[in-house]
Amino acid sequence: MAAPLVQVPMNFGRHHIGSRTHSNMTLNLKGGGEMKVSSLILSFNSPVIEQLISTLEITSLDVDDFEELAVRCFVDCVYSGGIDLLEMRVFRDVNKMAHVFEVEWLVGRCEGYFTQGLSRYESLDLDEMLLFVDESWYMKKNLKKDKFWNLIREIVYYVGLFDMVILNYTVDFNTILLSTLDMIISLAGNRNSSLLKLLLKSLTDSQTLSSNAKYLLQRLDLVQCMHTDKNLYLDLFSNLNELEELTHEDLKMIS
Fold first, then answer.
1. Which of 13, 95, 181, 219 is deepest in the core (most CB within 10 A)?
2. What is the pTM assigned to this prediction?
C-alpha cells in the first residue's frame, strides 16, 4: 500500500531543527557557519530540493547567498508550517528563498504578510514606508510581481509622503545608481512636475548636465511637461540654456 502524500504546510515540530537524530543534511551559511536540517522535511516542502536530493544525492546545500537570519527563518517556516518568525528585516531573503526553492505555500504566506503590512499604510512612518517601497520595487524587478509596486505607488501619494520618499533617494542626485533613478521615474508615473522639480534642483546645485540629469531628461515627456506645468517647463529650459560646456549631443537633446 502506497504511503499517503504529505500535505504542506505541516507542523513537523520546530524542536526537531538541528536534531542529531533527524538532521542528515547541512546548510552552508554565509560567513562559514553550518545549520543541520532534515532533508526529508525540506524535500516535502520544496520540489527543487527534493530533485537535488533524489538525483544528485546531495548531503549539503550552499545557501550563502542569503543572510543567515533569513535562512534560519526559512527553515523554521518549513518545519513549523507557519511564519511566526517572519519580519521585514528578513522578508526579502525569505521571500526569495521561497521562490528559488519553489515553496509555493510560503510564497503565498509571504505575499499575505506583505499585504497585511501595507494595509497599515496610514500609520507607517517614513522609514517603514521606504522599506515597503524598496521591497515592492525588488519584487517587481526581480520576481516579476507588479501588483505590490502598483499599490505602493498609489499609497505613497495618498499619504502625502512622495516628496519625502524622493528626497531620501536623491540626497546626492548625481551619484545615485540608474536602477534607483528608474525606480523614481516609475514611482512618479505620469506626475511629471515632480521629476521636473528634481531635474531643476540638480541643475541648480551642480550647474552642469550630469549623466543622471541627461538620463532623466531623456525619459521625460517634455510635451506633457509643458502642458502640465508651463512655468516649470520654462524654468527648466532657462536653466539648461545657462549651462556651460554642453556638447553637441546635449544641444540636440534639448532643442
1. 95
2. 0.89
